[in-house]
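Researcher: Following up on the earlier apo prediction. This time include the ligand. It's calcium ion, with the SMILES given after the sequence.
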Amino acid sequence: MGKILRMNLDGSVPVDNPFPNSFVYSYGHRNPQGLAWVGETLYASEHGQSAHDEINRIKLGSNYGWPVIQGTERKAGMVTPLFQSGNETWAPSGMAAHNGKLYVAALRGNAVREFDLEDGRTTAVITGLGRIRDVYNDGEYLYFVSNNTDGRGTPDEKDDKLYRVLVRNLK
Ligand SMILES: [Ca+2]
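Model: Understood. Below is the ligand-bound prediction.
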């Protein structure tokens, strides 16, 4: 099963990692793709096996369920995702945080999706540009890159591209 690891910059194991002498920070992941911090809280995007993609709030030492639970399923000792895509496929990739929201690149979803951490809603805020691989936020602008030339997309002549939009113009 997949894991998220944490190590010090010198390659040593942080003393406050959850398991002694182990880089493991969380486990039970299937295919984590993007990470973003909101203050002291870590969020991660993850691909499900078929649809059931996930956005998780990562707690130190927790088990995120793969391969025992998926989607909205619950089991003692395992964490059910904060957001999950049900029968849709987002194929979430890189992510960035801004103002209580996560902005997540979606490959198969052909979008940048916004996840509101307060009201639990998600919407596609950028569409029509094909597969989106990664996003970055500098507090004013959201930057993102298309990835239509990765062998799974339908590239335009000038793909791929780096885009920039004012975050306040997204809605
Ligand atoms: Ca999971």
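Model: The first strand starts at residue 2 and ends at 5.
Researcher: Noted. I'll compare it with the apo version next.
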